[in-house]
Write a structure and sequence with these properties.
Number of helices of chain A: 3
Radius of gyration of chain A: 14 Å
Distance between the termini of chain B: 62 Å
Largest interface: A-B, 42 and 44 residues
Radius of gyration of chain B: 24 Å
Number of strands of chain B: 15
Oligomer: heterodimer
CATH class of chain A: Alpha Beta
Shape of chain B: globular
CATH superfamily of chain A: Dynein light chain 2a, cytoplasmic
CATH topology of the largest domain in chain B: Rossmann fold
CATH architecture of the largest domain in chain B: 3-Layer(aba) Sandwich
Structural class of chain A: alpha+beta
CATH class of the largest domain in chain B: Alpha Beta
Number of strands of chain A: 5
Chain lengths: 120, 368
């Protein structure tokens, strides 16, 4: 699954307005892709850990834990969680002229469904 | 301070932590929650490391209690139970680190490194956490009286600025394009928002030379006059953001600019016409199911249909901590809100400097 997601991350997240993104696995490993030097891998790694912690806390509180969005002063962080516990996180600009929210949300849906297609 | 019911373990941990820190750490220990609380009342503690499996008081409750009473002390859990639900429960109750009890020399070294990072982590960023009933003016006064050097970053939805204090003297202020005393007075007149005390850096210019006592008095006078007069405060002096938290469920996938607070005046207006709002695909009737507003100390200020206020407060406290951790090393600015989505539900939480908000809404399809 990691190989599939690594390929998917590299191919599908090169979208205008996306600053950085990453995937965190339940075994606490992660994949990171950054298109801005202001988003260094160590800081992103820390962010992915926080995302994963948050999904776990949402779960124990019986809150929906499929999709969340963090709103910061200068950026959005879109996150999705698959049923197998793998989390996706995407930092985007806050300028709606720079990115399309709908595209990001579709990406999360795609991520959640990846590898779970029913055999024909 | 380490709190653990295993006295032998405490002895080992104390010796090792003192050795690894080369004597820089003073390690206190307590064998139960009551002794730990006594030490906390008597001593200043930088870091609490707790074994949450202790007799008498449930460890998670103890952690929650500590987090509520001592929100500014870093807390770590050191345990033998590494299950994910347990880890989540600890994090939800205020732990910043969740660590396994070491079983090897390397493990003990890693434990020390992790705890040492946690201790070092905070002063670099400056203030964190909760200052209930302590205002901007109080903190500035404390900085000046202590002859400190620091930069106070102040912001609300409309205004962002910095006040530079060197050796207890206010030497420069900047708010947007304005500098000097005008900027200082503007920042001091804000009725809400956030401030962050950061390590001192040299300002681009020295624009203020008066005594800090006079500056603070003058700022207070101007603020009082503004409040007493019939005319409202200038737009940049109000904390309210132009978004409505009471309607989170209604704004699905709409134009963000209409909802997002502007960082600088006029920004929201500039962004607003960027893109026409997408046509609604499905028609839902949003219903607010639950609302909670609490202070940053965890006191309920307002609640409506909240089934478990304590759980919500713990969640908001977790979020406050996590949102702060998240932005370390990233240029993303202040945390504003978290939106939790599912097809039928939406939760919006928001953390301000003096209160936190939790709103849960559901969406029912409109009857045809």
């Amino acid at each position: 699954m990691k190989d599939i997601l690594q390929k998917w991350l590299a191919e599908r997240t090169q979208i205008m307005g996306v600053l950085a993104c990453g995937i965190r696995f339940p075994d606490k490993t992660s994949l990171t892709q950054s298109w801005s030097k202001e988003f260094p891998p160590e800081a992103l790694e820390n962010a992915w850990r926080c995302v994963s912690d948050t999904f776990q806390v949402l779960k124990i509180n019986f809150f929906p834990n499929e999709q969340i969005r963090w709103v910061y002063e200068n950026a959005f962080l879109y996150c999705g969680r698959r049923n197998d516990g793998i989390c996706l996180a995407i930092f985007t600009s806050r300028d709606p002229q720079l990115f399309d929210q709908e595209t990001i949300e579709k990406l999360i849906v795609e991520f959640r469904a990846l590898g779970q297609e029913k055999p024909k | 301070m380490f709190v653990d019911d295993d006295a032998g373990f405490l002895e080992v941990v104390r010796n090792l932590m003192v050795a690894y820190s080369e004597g820089l750490w003073e390690v206190l220990v307590a064998t139960d929650a009551a002794r730990g609380l006594t030490v906390l009342r008597e001593r200043k503690i930088d870091l609490l490391v707790i074994d949450v499996h202790m007799p008498v008081m449930d460890g998670l409750q103890f952690l929650g209690l500590l987090h509520r009473r001592y929100p500014n002390i870093s807390k770590a859990v050191l345990t033998g139970d590494a299950s994910d639900p347990y880890r989540a429960a600890c994090l939800s109750n205020g732990a910043e680190l969740f660590l396994l009890k070491p079983t090897s020399t390397e493990g003990w070294q890693s434990l020390f490194v992790a705890l040492n990072e946690l201790v070092k982590f905070q002063p670099e960023e400056g203030f964190r956490g909760v200052l209930r009933r302590v205002g901007l003016q109080d903190v500035l006064q404390m900085e000046c009286l202590a002859r400190s050097s620091s930069v106070m970053e102040v912001s609300n939805a409309e205004t962002h600025g910095n006040i530079f204090v060197r050796d207890g003297q206010i030497i420069h202020a900047q708010a947007g394009d304005v500098t000097g005393e005008d900027a200082f007075n503007r920042l001091m007149s804000l009725t809400g928002g956030q401030f962050n005390l950061k390590p001192f850096v040299e300002p681009p210019a020295v624009t203020i030379s008066g005594s800090w006592e006079f500056l603070l008095m003058e700022a207070a006078r101007q603020r009082d006059e503004a409040q007493e007069s019939e005319s409202p405060l200038p737009p940049w002096a109000t904390a309210a953001e132009p978004e409505s938290e009471a309607e989170p469920a209604a704004s699905q996938g709409g134009n963000e600019a209409a909802a997002a607070p502007g960082i600088v005046p006029g920004m929201a207006r500039r962004l607003r016409p960027a893109k026409p709002p997408p046509a609604p695909v499905e028609k839902f009737c949003p219903t607010i199911d639950e609302v909670l507003i609490c202070s940053t100390q965890g006191d309920v200020l307002y609640e409506w249909q909240c089934a478990d206020a304590n759980a919500r407060i713990r969640f908001l406290q977790f979020l406050s901590q996590k949102s702060w951790q998240m932005r370390q090393g990233l240029p993303i600015g202040y945390f504003q809100r978290l939106e939790i989505e599912s097809p039928r539900n939406r939760i919006v939480t928001r953390i301000d400097s003096d209160r936190a908000l939790f709103v849960r809404a559901s969406r029912e399809p409109l009857a045809k």
